[in-house]
Amino acid sequence: MSTRNADGLRRLAVTGRWGCVVAAAVLVAATWAHIWTQPIRELVAPLGFVSLDHVAAWQFALVRVIACGATAAAAASLLGLAACFRAMSTDDPFPATAAALPRFASTVLVALLVSAVTAPLSSLVLSAGADPGQGRVVVTLGANHAFALLATVAFYALARLVREAARIERENAEFV
Description:
By secondary structure, the chain is an all-alpha fold. The chain has one domain (3-175). Helices cover 80% and strands 0% of the residues. It contains five helices and no strands. It has helices spanning 3-37, 40-44, 57-88, 93-127, 143-175.
């Protein structure tokens, strides 16, 4: 790679890395502030509970903690992407990136799983103590979940491709 291209890649990688770190911090701060200050009725409205009279304070707090867990998992994915950018900024980016990409894909998969179980867990917590027939389990899976799963598979495939490129680069260096 030419020096000019390498310098451009490093600048892009450093910008991407710090952009991901800042985005993760802003995501956590803004979302957690929203989760803990929003009226609980508005927070749980998407779960479809008509009456929350049976719900104790500890249940509301636990639902807020569950919601924070989903945000933390998303922030971890951003930090995993920051690690990929950091790997790209090294002098030998192929091996470092090949190692960072599967870890990033794993953080996306964990964030997907945490997101998928947030609504069912929250609805179970809110159903505790409800009158018979009033409890519910809410499952929400949508296009965002499908997209995250496809992105995870794509990142695992990209990691294998980069790993193979690193192997070929090492092999070619041995001939020179």
